[in-house]
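Mods, move this if it's the wrong board.
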Amino acid sequence: MIDAVNIDTPYIWKGHIDPPKNYNEIKENLSLIKDQCSGQIQSPLEEGNSFSTVGYDRYRPHRIEELAPFYKKLYNDLQFIHFRVNDRTRVPNHMLNPVFDTGFYSVDLQESNRTEDKFFLIDRAWFNVHYRGARTLPHDHGIVDYVCAYYLNHPKDSGNFMVEPSGGMSTAVLNSDSTKISYTHKQNPVTIPVETGDYLIFPGHVTHGCESSDSDEERIVITTNIMVNKYD
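Not the wrong board. Structure tokens:
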């Protein structure tokens, strides 16, 4: 069961599922690939002693079988949020046909029943690992429909999730070589307490981040970008 966390206009949904039994194996694998990730393009949003697998394709969370129960639960939650809460409708069975040589495609309805429901797509998923003093700077995920942050490990005093209320969106600007980000706040962020096993679902346009960790144990978060596939 998931609960609504009311933060002014952009609401956030909070659920919980215990980390997989092979958590220690995942943690060990992350330690092994830490040096490899340091050679990848790093996110300028991670500040302090930290690393991210955002640019590392060989170890994506949604490709780890032991995390399948989490993604199954996430899928069911998204169906509830998207169709029942947000009152969205499914696109009828259709085909995409070219409109001569214009570059356009038309959506032509079909009579046959849909055999597969490829409605929610994982655009990308990755791990963020934060040590003492590290944090994620305020940002948003642009045109991504939904984002999920799953706290695979959240030690005591490792910092909570932050979100900008409506009217308090930040402006984030990268410098010329994409290594540093600057931002300004129009309103103080609201913090949402989280624990190990908690996950948060929110729209991609919502500005969010996380507080600095004050723990000697690493904070490990899985971030997943989800797109709504209206026309497949």
